[in-house]
Design brief:
Number of helices: 8
Distance between the termini: 150 Å
Order of helices and strands: HEEEEHEHEEEEEEEEHEHEEEEEHHEHE
Number of domains: 2
Number of strands: 21
Radius of gyration: 33 Å
Strand order of the largest sheet: 4-3-2-1-6-7-8-9-5
Low-confidence stretches: 1-30, 327-337
Strand content: 25-35%
Shape: elongated
Helix content: 10-25%
């Protein structure tokens, strides 16, 4: 009986052992997450309330974090004074490129290969092959995804190497998207929504502000009007308006790109540092003059020129209310090439520029309707309608422009602020054909 018991026990042990080995092998395979969703399984784009992209900054020699958050019903950029982010599409593309994506093939957990695959921590010093870290959170602060996105897979440009930040495992995944942490990629970078044909009036208001006395000095105002061609009542004798220079001004107006922002503030030291001044009457002045241009819709834009922007894209910018640095950059009449600049913008409605309103003002008096007939006004705007719409549009624009002044690229600045001499040129002599000799 004991012998039979021993034999049965041995048989049971032998049959159990292969099953245990097989189960161990399955567990070993399942340690890798091939086919599993990256991050939180059921997360959707609608759940995202905070997004951050961290990348290595060669200029700062450190990791640079760009963050957008959903706050009070809109997306804002905390690092840039809660400037509104035109982020609906950008957040959707960024979040949608990683949410719901599955790990595909397991590659390695060897940290020595991170540089090769581009998945090193983007904030790490002394390493190569840093990736871009993408962090998504919901409104409760719960992490939906925290992953380092690496380089594209050699044999499949639609796939990249990826690892979750707290994991050492690297996989391939179907992620084909360029993650940006540049401010200009997350905002409506077009500062002025004006088309080229709409610009009808330009005035160069050249002056300087003496920052000790706060007096305007060396002021020269020059007007340019466009009928068929650009003309100016200030054209020197023997010269004509240089259309190429004026065209560069107009091109810069319609293509003015935003590089950075700073908030308006009552702290005079903060404003003076950037070369933008608030007058006692509530107006604005730039220490390097202004450009005024008017459109056929009756909108008159004032672009005020401030100082050179030496800190255009810094992290942890100072709080304007706390700013006490008395040092200001000396005014520079010839800023170095390559430097960005501060500008401020203000808009007025000028009914004398509104082409449609002027057409109504100058239209012949309509024939009075016959007795008992109602005048036909359906679908037609009155003079008052144009004035009301123009005033409201100017107010809406100022609601945007009054919160911030802006950093623009060096090339745009100089195109907006040409020298007065370059606005005119010698009258080109038109060559006349030599007379054809006649036969006697």
């Amino acid at each position: 009986m004991k012998a039979i018991t021993v034999i049965l026990a041995i048989i049971a042990l032998v049959t159990f052992y292969p099953a245990w080995i097989q189960n161990t092998e399955v567990i070993a395979v399942n340690q890798h997450r091939e086919g599993a969703i990256i991050g939180k399984k059921d997360a959707s784009i609608e759940d995202v309330s905070e997004l951050a992209v961290i990348a290595w900054s060669p200029e700062k020699q450190s990791g640079h974090t760009f963050q957008v958050v959903y706050k009070d019903g809109s997306w804002v950029i905390p690092s840039h004074y809660d400037y509104p982010a035109d982020a609906g599409e950008q957040v959707g593309k960024t979040a949608g490129s990683v949410l719901g994506v599955s790990f595909e093939r397991f590659i390695t957990d060897d940290k020595d290969r991170y540089a090769e695959l581009g998945v090193n921590d983007p904030s790490a010093e002394g390493v190569d092959g840093r990736g871009k870290r993408v962090v998504l959170k919901n409104a409760q602060g719960e992490v939906l995804i925290d992953a380092v996105i690496g380089v594209q897979q050699e044999d499949n440009s639609a796939n990249r190497y990826v690892r979750e930040f707290k994991s050492s495992d690297v996989y391939t995944a179907a992620i084909d998207f360029q993650f940006s942490n540049n401010f200009s990629d997350w905002v409506n970078s077009d500062l002025v929504d004006v088309s080229l044909p709409d610009v009808a009036v330009i005035m160069k208001d050249d002056y300087r502000v003496d920052e000790k006395t706060m007096q305007v000095i060396n002021r020269v105002a020059t007007n340019f009007n466009k009928n068929i061609e650009w003309e100016s009542p200030s054209t020197p004798e023997g010269q004509e308006v240089n259309k190429e220079t004026l065209q560069r001004v107009v091109n810069a107006i319609s293509g003015l790109d935003l590089v950075g922002v700073r908030p308006f503030h009552t702290n005079a030291r903060w404003m003076r540092k950037h070369g933008i001044f608030m007058t006692q009457k509530g107006g604005i002045m730039g220490n390097e003059g202004q450009l005024i241009f008017g459109t056929k819709k009756g909108l008159r834009y004032h672009v005020f020129f401030g100082e050179i922007a030496t800190d255009a894209d810094m992290d942890n910018l100072p709080n304007p209310a706390d700013y006490t640095d008395e040092k200001t950059e000396e005014a520079n009449t010839e800023p170095s090439n390559g430097s960005n600049h501060y500008i401020a913008i203000f808009v007025q409605y000028d009914p004398e520029l509104d082409a449609e309103r002027l057409a109504l003002v100058n239209a012949p008096t309509p024939v009075a309707p016959a007795e008992g007939e109602e005048p036909k006004t359906e679908g037609k705007k009155s003079i008052e309608d144009h004035e009301k719409e123009g005033t409201e549009e100017a107010e809406q624009l100022n609601a945007r422009y009054s919160k911030y002044f802006y950093v623009v690229e060096n090339s745009d600045y100089f195109d907006l602020k040409p020298s007065l001499e370059s606005c005119f040129k010698a009258i080109e002599k038109k060559e006349t054909a030599a007379p054809v000799p006649t036969t006697p």
